[in-house]
Design brief:
By secondary structure, the protein is mostly helical. The protein has helices at about 5-20, 30-40, 40-55, 85-100, 110-115, 120-130, 150-175, 180-200, 200-205, 205-220, 225-245, 250-270, 270-300; strands at about 60, 65, 105-110, 135-140, 145. The longest helix has 28 residues, at about 270-300. The chain is elongated and about 75 Å long.
Length: about 300
């Protein structure tokens, strides 16, 4: 389905929702207001109004637009399957933010970003709302959003929050039953870490993906929707810091491999205190590396 057609369908359904809040006979606002509400151009709004007039939902004569009846479910237009779209939006938006393509404290246009990332404006608004609790974006006092950016304070607070989440996950892994899939996954990760350590001189750049897989496995034992949502953002941010600072990358990655293996060793021994201490040491190192990478990028 063409991007423009998808945008029209989403805007049409959004305007139906908008009209559903009004009584029959009410006058619709100006096209500029409808355009802002739906996050699309006036041209798309006019297409929507034409269809709404054809369906007998509105009476449209020049600037005069009146609601004739309440929209029905049958009036809505089917949308394409967007499964997986949220994950892609997260990755693309964070890529945009964490590559520093836009400075901190920049106002964000929902309509423009919706077009950039090819998503519905209301989906983007929901996504920005979810990011706001991490401090990457914030609502503006008079409406709209602003990019707060990735700062030193943000990195410190995120690292501290990560420590709380992952120490809880480590404790739960240590208590997992013997038939829990996490044990098979940890065995696979042990082998992958040892293999990468053997070829670290040439393939050290592959560590970021292995790091992501390791932390994903540890956190997989926690069945908590809020933690899962938090870990998505945390994982992506810590993944990106590997791209910022390439100095001593091989040595850092080999050290992190050994720290991961220390956590796996303790977990497989069902030694929760030792596993937590090994995880604490690894996360301290990760925090230090993140801050160093942030300083390096700022100087670069």
């Amino acid at each position: 389905m063409a991007r423009s057609d998808t945008r029209f369908r989403e805007a049409f359904n959004h305007l139906l929702d908008f009209c559903a809040t009004m009584p029959a006979g009410a006058e619709l606002p100006a096209e500029a207001t409808l355009s802002e509400a739906a996050g699309v151009s006036r041209t798309v709004v006019r297409r929507c109004l034409t269809r709404m007039a054809d369906l007998g939902i509105v009476a449209w004569d020049g600037r005069a637009k009146h609601l004739l009846r309440a929209p029905l479910t049958a009036d809505r237009i089917a949308l394409p399957d967007t499964s997986g779209g949220r994950d892609q939006l997260e990755k693309r938006f964070l890529d945009w933010v964490l590559r520093f393509d836009v400075p901190a404290d920049t106002p964000l246009s929902v309509a423009e970003l919706a077009r950039t990332f090819d998503v519905a404006p209301h989906d983007l608004k929901e996504f920005l709302a979810s990011l706001s609790r991490f401090g990457l974006v914030a609502r503006r006092p008079r409406g709209g959003w602003i990019l707060r950016g990735f700062t030193k304070d943000f990195a410190i607070e995120l690292s501290d929050f990560r420590l709380i989440l992952e120490l809880d996950a480590i404790a739960k892994v240590a208590e997992a039953p013997v038939d829990h899939p996490v044990w098979q996954r940890l065995a696979e990760l042990r082998a992958a870490h040892l293999a990468l350590a053997d070829r670290i001189a040439t393939d050290f750049h592959e560590f970021s993906k292995l790091d992501e897989a390791f932390h994903e496995a540890i956190n997989s034992v926690v069945r908590n929707r809020f933690m899962a949502e938090s870990q998505k953002v945390i994982s992506l941010i810590f993944h990106y810091h590997y791209m910022w600072d390439k100095t001593h990358e091989m040595d850092r990655n080999l050290a992190a491999i050994n720290e991961h293996l220390a956590v796996i060793d303790a977990l497989e021994a069902r030694d929760a205190p030792r596993a937590c201490e090994a995880a604490r040491q690894h996360l301290r190192t990760s925090k230090s590396t993140l801050l160093s990478s942030l300083r390096h990028h700022a100087l670069g």
